[in-house]
Specification:
By secondary structure, the chain is an alpha+beta fold. The chain contains seven helices and four strands. Strands 2-1-3-4 form a four-stranded mixed sheet, with helices on both faces. A hairpin with a 2-residue loop joins strand 3 and strand 4 (136-138). Helix 1 (3-14) crosses helix 3 (40-50) and helix 2 (24-35) packs antiparallel against helix 3 (40-50). It binds FE2/S2 (inorganic) cluster. FE2/S2 (inorganic) cluster binds next to helix 5.
């Protein structure tokens, strides 16, 4: 994903934490949910928005094993399992994704193309169940369309450096 797009997405994702003290870790969690890792440019947006020095953000990101500084795959697929998505069948979407990709949630395909993760509510419950691939939201996903989506993402991943 291009840095400008990452900056734009990050600004949206962390807007709710802008004037809240002590929200650095929550903001970083939301960023990792959105991208699958913490891009450097996202940390810069966090620094500007929450008025926290870059050094402090970097210390937090490297202290907690949960946070990743490198993208674990070319395409990060986030399957939402927040309440609304869960009620609308996110479990069967996750299972279809796992079958189509041949990996479990939290894993990366051996070719490094896809990383699959389960995330909590991503703020678009009206579109539940949702799957987000590299920041692009797919709403009202049905298990039957998962293999078509994976084929589309594979084509995209093949053109990525
Ligand atoms: S529960 Fe999935 S977007 Fe809110």
């Amino acid at each position: 994903m291009k840095s400008e797009k990452i900056k734009e997405e990050t600004a949206k994702v962390i807007a709710k934490w802008a004037n809240k003290r002590g929200s650095l870790i929550m903001a970083l969690h939301d960023i990792q949910n959105a991208f699958g890792y913490i891009p450097w440019v996202a940390m810069e947006v966090v620094s500007d928005t929450l008025h926290v020095p870059m050094g402090q953000i970097y210390s937090v990101v490297t202290f907690y094993h949960f946070f990743k500084l490198k993208s674990p795959g070319k395409i990060i697929i986030s399957c939402c399992d927040g309440t609304a998505c869960h009620l609308k069948g996110s479990e069967s979407i996750l299972s279809a994704l796992q079958n189509a990709l041949g990996i479990q949630a939290g894993q990366t395909t051996p070719d490094g193309m896809f990383h699959l993760q389960v995330v909590r509510c991503m703020g678009c419950c009206g579109l539940a169940p949702i799957v987000v691939a590299n920041g692009e939201t797919h709403g009202r996903v049905q298990p039957a369309e998962v293999s078509k989506l994976v084929a589309e993402w594979r084509k995209k991943a093949e053109t990525m450096p």
